[in-house]
Design a protein that fits this description.
Layout (H helix, E strand, L loop, with lengths): L1 E2 L33 H6 L3 E2 H23 L5 H11 L1 H10 L15 E4 L10 E4 L2 E2 L4 E2 L1 E5 L4 E6 L3 H7 L9 H4 L8 E5 L5 E4 L2 E6 L5 E9 L4 E2 L5 E6 L15 E6 L5 E6 H7 L4 H4 L10 E6 L12 E5 L4 E6 L4 E7 L6 E5 L4 E6 L16 E6 L4 E3 L3 H6 L9 E4 L5 E5 L4 E5 L5 E6 L14 E3 L1 H13 L4
Amino acid sequence: MFVMFRQVDLVSSDKGGGDTAAPVVSRDGRVPPETSPLERLLYRPVPLWLLLLVIVLGAGGLIAFGAVVDGWQKSGALGRAAIQTARLPDTIKRSFEGSAPYFRGQYPRLPAGFWRNPAQGLVDPGYALVSPYDPERGRSVVRLIRLSDGATLRDIVPDVDAANARSRFTSALTDVRRDKDAPRNRLMHPLLLSDGSIVVHDSSPLARYDPCGRLMWSLDGIFTHSTERGPDGTLWVPYRHPRPTEPGVRPTFWDDAVANVSPDGTLLSSVTVAAILERNGLGHLWRGRPYSDDPFHLNDIQPVMADGPHWRRGDVFLSLRNLSMVALYRPATGRILWWRVLPWRFQHDVTILDDHRISVFDNNVLMGYPREAVNGTNRLLVQDFAKGVTTSPYAEAFRRNAIATRAQGRGTPLPDGDAIVEETEQGRLLRVAPDGTVRWRYISADAQQRRFALAWARYLDSSTDGTAIQKAMTTPCV
């Protein structure tokens, strides 16, 4: 049996355009000899069995390709080629999207940069380390700002491509050269060290750069979210295994871990969140739910700097967003000393206020709704361990300023009662009083006042960070 083409008559026209019809094909499938070789090939009869064979082989090839992609880590060069082919649509899409992290929601149009409320008379003695997107450079930078007048003291432009060039891991989660190159790297939560250098990442290798942006060291892997320094000077950073260590999960599983790194870039320890929960009899908190590639979403590791009645120096607080859980963890013993799920929902940024209180930036998300909508506004909650109560002292400030970032977000209560708040997605950083009065604000935006997302700013105090600030300001670059 053959697939035959219907006979078509040649049609000529005296109105111009020449002979444009298909060649005549006889009822027995023959093409006249005067036709071109290409036309003869196109109109060649195709046996039905061959067509069916091609369809069957094609379907089998797609199934085999999917199997290789699903277990590409175990397939050597073939697996690497398969995953790169599977990523091709994403690569093409990203080439058209651009690198600027624009916020697509609604917001009041405000000028970019720093503004201080002249009616308040407050001269903030602190500094801010922010990493806004710079439209002139076409990439994010780390910017040191003096808050008394909003002056930019230094822009550090880290050579993230140098760190990515050293990277050797492969993962279904990210391709650092494609996804985290200089134009797309957001420079998450920069940490300023005493020599004026910074440590940053963006779901990419953890790297340290001098004040001129030159790479000092890099630690390969997927480091995410917060970067904090412990009492011994080591760094605590959430880590995500490029290839999951948890059995029976997909290659795209977010296998989060608590990582401790030396100031010279050596990985000192790493333990997965799954192992921590299992060891403490809490594995049911995620295993009892429907499968998710992102069951934990570790977004903050906050080290305890001094002993207190409820914790010890060297303990760490963990924020597990997708469990709406905050836990006090003792790395020395592997034990969870305290944990709580709710009242915060999809929270970020635990801050230790004194020897018995912590604050938690509560995204206050309606988790069962499409796009995880915020329930009105975010909240900055205070958990008092001595009294066993949770309060919301900045509720009016958040309401008056409509602070509502769906994802991420930062909040730092200050000793005088004010708070530094980052509305991450909307690109807004501000100091507010509990009654909602804005002392100053910083907006990340372009000349048309279109907002760029921020990437976890840090408030610096000259009494504790003075040496680092001075080095960052004065180190010459040649």
